[in-house]
Amino acid sequence: MNWNSARVRALGLLTVGAVVALTGCGSSSSGSASTSSSGSAAAAGGAKKNITIGFAQVGSESGWRTANTTSIKAALTKDAGFTLKFADAQQKPENQIQAIRSFIAQKVDVIAFSPVVTTGWDSVLEEAKAANIPVILTDRAVDVKDKTLYKTFIGSDFIEEGKRVGEFVSTTYGTKPINVVELEGTTGSAPAIDRKKGFSDAIASNPNIKVVASQTGNFTRSEGKQTMEGLLQSQKQIDVLFAHNDDMALGAIEAIEAAGKKPGVDIKIVSIDGVKDGMTALSTGKINYIVECNPLLGPDLATLAKKVVNGESVDARIVTHDDAFDQAGATKALPDRKY
Fold first, then answer.
1. pLDDT of residue 49
2. Which segments in the chain show pLDDT lower than 70?
3. What is the C-alpha separation between 290 and 183, in angstroms, rounded?
4. Residue 6, phi-psi category: left (phi > 0), alpha (psi -120 to 50), beta (remainder)
5. Residue-level pLDDT at 150
6. How far are the Cα atoms of 78, 127, 310 from residue 50, in angstroms, in the given order?
7. Which residues of 177-190 are buried (b: 16+ CB within 10 A; e: fewer)?
8. Are 59 and 14 in contact (CB under 8 A)?
9. Are strands 82-88 and 51-57 parallel, antiparallel or unpaired?
10. Which residue, among 73, 103, 88, has the nearest Cα to 31 in the 3D structure?
11. Cα 95 to chain centroid, rounded
12. 320: DSSP letter
């Protein structure tokens, strides 16, 4: 796969200049905000003041999230016209709410966040609206009564991702009776809810497919391994594992190998994300199929932030482009993989 095919095409979003290479996820205790790049007041010659943006990240639970954080920090730089205040919520919604309230108190120009879970955001988003601070959702959606509490939501279609995995399982393995186990993402999160629904809808008409167990692995490699260890003990026969993300699939591979079974052969594995470690496992046959979820949202978030601060109209929903890979596709894509 050529990386350019995974770029978001919607809205004719502009490429943000001066991308800075960064690694890893930034963090701060209890979701408190920290300044990641410094802005400046209007310079001589009438230059505009940088846009101050507060970003509340879910955490650093996976390789996907690391790539997402790196993309955001690289795009929202001083040279690109931003002052970034970054908060790591450590997968706790209460930390994220605290960070957003901190951004409101600091009177930032725009707030962006990827919500840990879908519910519980009405009050804090009403506070942001009352303060006339526009809000952008990235990666994950929220369930609020008033849809005007945020300006736009950019990210993948999680239901479609689950559907694509389910269709692959149905057509590739569902020609005979099979037992499927499911490693779900964080309970209550949009990707966990939607990927499960998409998968369930896609296999519903195939009587050969039976989901014998579905448990959370919280989107982490360690919990994916631990949960899979329990499933291998509790289930007499597992033919296919559907993991809601690559990190849980990679953890499950460790458990499967420790149990003396061959991942990708004795137990077929399908996953969502397309991070480099997952794609590497796919290229070697330990994973059988991956639907991509593009994490590199930073440049497009920068463009959207400038638009909403300037009062320009933006679409309420922007869906990113995602590919899907089998073993041959992963092998071809890996040399140019950006995450």
1. 87
2. 1-48
3. 14
4. alpha
5. 98
6. 7, 23, 12
7. ebbbbbbbbbebbb
8. no
9. parallel
10. 88
11. 18
12. P
Residues 6+ apart with CB under 8 A from 285: 264, 265, 327
Which residues are within 8 A (CB) of 162 and not within 5 positions of it... i.e. 6 or more apart? 194, 195, 196, 197, 198, 199, 200, 201, 202, 272
Residues 6+ apart with CB under 8 A from 323: 1, 5, 6, 274, 292, 329
Domains and CATH numbers, the chain: 3-155+295-321 (3.40.50.2300), 158-293 (3.40.50.2300)
Q: How far apart are CA 63 and CA 277, in angstroms?
A: 8
d(CA 78, CA 300): 16
Q: What is the pLDDT of residue 47?
A: 55
Phi then psi for 60, rounded to 5 degrees? -140, 50
CB 300 within 8 A of CB 139: no
What's the pLDDT score for residue 338?
Answer: 85
Tell me how far apart the terminal alpha carbons of the chain are, to the nearest angstrom.
13
Instruction: Summarize pLDDT for 73-121 with one digit per residue, the tens.
Output: 999 999 999 999 999 999 999 999 999 999 999 999 999 999 999 999 9
